[in-house]
Each structure stands twice: as C-alpha cells, then as structure tokens.
Amino acid sequence: MRLLTIFVNYNDTEMKRFCIFVLGIIFSISITANNPKFSVLTCWPGDEAYSLYGHTGLRYCDEERDMDIVFNYGYFDFDSPNFAWRFILGETDYMVGAVDYDHFCQEYIQRGSLIVGQVLELTPEQENELLELLVDNCSVRNRTYRYNYFYNNCTTKVRDKIEQVAGPLSYDAVAQYPTFRDALNSLLGDHPWFAFGINTLLGADIDRPATVRELQFIPGIFMHDLDSCYMVNAAGERTPVVAMKQLVLPEGEDDAPMQSNFTPFNVSLLLLLMTFVIMLCEVRKKKTFWGYDVLLMSVQGIAGLLLLFMALFSQHPAVGNNWAIILLNPLALILMPILVSRIRKHKSLSLAWLQVVFVVLFLLSAMLSLQVYPLPLYFCAIALLVRSLFLIYKENICELSRF
User: Digits of tens for pLDDT over the chain (403 positions)?
Assistant: First the structure.
C-alpha cells in the first residue's frame, strides 16, 4: 500500500480518454475471452515515504488475445483543488484505473523492487463477473473513492473485489502482529524519522489487538494470508483461492540505504545531555539561560498544536485518541512567556510545577499501557522534568554548590 502510489501527470480529460480507450477494449472481450486469468500483484516496498509499505494491483491476463492489464487503486489527481490541504485533513480521494502491465511494472523495474503474482483459482463465471465489476468500477462515475489508510486502500479494495465474486473467504492464517502499530513498525526499521513521526502522530487506537483481516491493509501481509485462503461453497467444501504463486519481477540490485547518526533517538538523547550541561553552566555562572526554555517549550507547544489539530479536524484514522498530547501539550505556548517573564524578573517559578504534572501524567499513561510511545519521547519527557525541577529549586541548588 502506498501513500502516494503512482503519480498521474495527465489532466482529467486525458484520464477519461485513457480509461475509456482501455476499458472499451476490455469490455469488448469480457464475454468471449478464452481462459483469462486474474492474479494479485504484490509490489515490494521502496525507500520513498509513499512506497514504504508496498502496493497491490489486480492483473488481468489473456494471452490468446494479447491482453495484459492491471487494475490499480492507487491513482490520484495531484492537481485537484486544495489537494495538500485535503490530504492533511484525511479527505484524499483516490481513483481506480486500468493500465498496461508493462507500464505498471516500469516504476518497480527502475527501483529494483520485487513483484510477486498470485494467480486466482476462479471459475470462468467468477472471472467474467469480476471483470465486469472492475470495468464498472473504472467508469467515470464510480472510479473515485475516499482513501483510508487502514480500512480502504489499494490492498483492501483488491481483497474486497475478490470477495464480491468469490464470497466470504476463509483464512487459515493467524495474525502476524499483535497490533496495528507492530505491523506498521515492521517495515520502518530503516526509516527512523518516518517511524518516529508515525508513532507520535497515531494514538492509542492502533495499540489494540488486530485481527487477521484488519492487518491486511499491508500488501505483504495480505499476500501471506492469501496463500492460506479458501473459498467455501454451500456444501462446506473448501477451494484454495490461489492456484499458483510466481515471481513476476525479480528483485534488482539496490544499494543499501545510508545509515545516519541523525536519528530521533540520538537527537533526543543529545537534548537530554544538553539540558544537564546547560543547568551545570547556570549553577556555575549564577544565571538562567531562559532562551533554552523558550526553545524547549516552543517545540513542545507547536507539536502539541499539531496533535490537537489532527485530533479535532482530521479524518485520518487513529489520530484522535492520542495520549501523547499530555507531554506535547499546546498549553506550553501559553506558559512559556509567563515563565520566561518570571525568570527575568527573578520571581518564584512555581508555575514550572505544571510541566512536572504534564510529564508525570505522560509517564503514568505509559505505565498503565494506555498507549505505546516511541522511545525518543521518553528522553524528551525526562529533559522537561529535570529542567522544570531545576527551575523550581534553582536557588537551593546554587546554595548547595557553594559547599
């Protein structure tokens, strides 16, 4: 599944002409095609953000008529009005289209990604029904759908179309991962910043136990489950859905991604160390470097505003119930000028107790397993905690440092 699967560079009129041309050919042979075959294409992940989870297509191949196309639920119109804003709000509309098989594979050939095909064991009647269903789905009036990362993406659409003609499917597979978050993180090991952003932005809803079917939003998981999937007839007899599995496109030579030390873990650890260094310098110089507090609380508050905005206005799944907002709290933007003003006027800094409360509640939510947080957030929490306690007891600490 891909956040931005394939870029469509032609305008809407050209898209219509393209679909009408291809689908017209398909429709003309749909009744008389001899031994056509459908197969699920699972495309391996790439290194770009939009390709980190892979992609799924549904291939229709009729060798006798030299027909080989892929139904692709990953198209979108980047030039549509307010696309970026609608994407942020989770109101992105995707489209299904039919494309020549060679053209579909070209992107994966260029980046050296693997494609595995699973030929479906459908009856001729089911194949004709599926083809007619897909042709109708590609029509101008039906081709657009509201994209949902977990429940309505390129992979789940393919699965649902197969079920429409084959009936409810029976899976012998067990859930490969306990939760949605575990499934997401399984493919993000080489992309620490993307993993940190996803794990911070998505809340407690993705930490609940996930079923076999729910995890099939990831192409690789659906491919695995399809291998042990059966159609069940009225007599209770089971027929495997997959007739044959084949390597459609071999994996090419691909350089290993460069490993950088600039990771969320290292940055957050450096932040914690810097906090201790600055406090040590403040004790020695008998000064308060309030600019550091401005930096800390600005980042904390801006991140909190983002979480609050997504929770209130975005339709993206799992961004609402996010306990990370306790730590990344937008109230920090209100507290910051007040706290800095009191620092500069050498007044009591008891207001910093609010920061202590934020951090303690955050750590308590983790202890109660309300949500799984990325490790760098804990370093940030400790930095805010020790900094706040230092500001509260700075005078006493300075007095002790004289001895």
Answer: 333 333 333 344 444 444 544 545 444 444 344 566 899 999 998 877 777 889 999 999 988 888 899 999 988 776 677 766 777 788 888 899 999 999 999 988 888 889 999 999 999 999 999 999 999 999 989 999 998 889 999 999 999 999 999 988 899 888 999 999 999 999 888 899 999 999 999 999 999 999 999 999 999 999 999 999 999 887 778 889 999 998 887 866 655 556 788 999 999 999 999 999 999 999 988 888 999 999 999 999 999 999 999 999 988 889 989 999 999 999 999 999 998 898 888 888 888 999 999 999 999 999 999 999 999 999 999 999 999 999 998 877 776 555 4
Per-position DSSP letters for 24-86, written without gaps between them:
HHHHHHTTT-SS-EEEEEEEPP-SSGGGTT-EEEEEEEEGGGTEEEEEEEEE--TTSTTHHHH
Strand order of the β-sheet with 229-232 is 169-171, 229-232, 238-240
Judgement on whether residues 168 and 28 belong to the same structural domain of the protein: yes
Domain extent at residue 370: 264-397
Residue 201 to residues 98, 272, 298, 311, 372, Cα–Cα distance (Å): 34, 22, 18, 9, 12
Q: Determine the Cα–Cα distance for residues 380 and 326; give it in Å rounded to an integer.
A: 13
Q: Check whether residue 27 and residue 115 sit in a common domain.
A: yes
Q: Find the farthest-apart pair of alpha carbons in the chain and give their distance in angstroms, rounded.
A: 96
User: Is position 227 within any domain?
Assistant: yes
| Claim to verify: residue 245 and residue 341 sit in the same structural domain | no
Claim to verify: residue 215 and residue 273 sit in the same structural domain: no
How many domains does the structure of the chain reveal?
2
Dihedral sign for Cα 180, 181, 182, 186, please: positive
Three-state SS for 229?
strand
Q: Is 259 exposed, middle or buried (0-12, 13-18, 19+ CB in 10 A)?
A: exposed
Is the same domain home to 233 and 333? Answer: no
Residue 7 covered by a domain: no
* Strands 242-249, 115-120: pairing kind: antiparallel
Any domain includes 4: no
Residues 352 and 224 in one domain: no
Distance CA(93)–CA(88), nearest Å, equals 12
Residue 5 lies in a domain: no
Rounded to whole angstroms, how far apart are CA atoms 40 and 60? 9
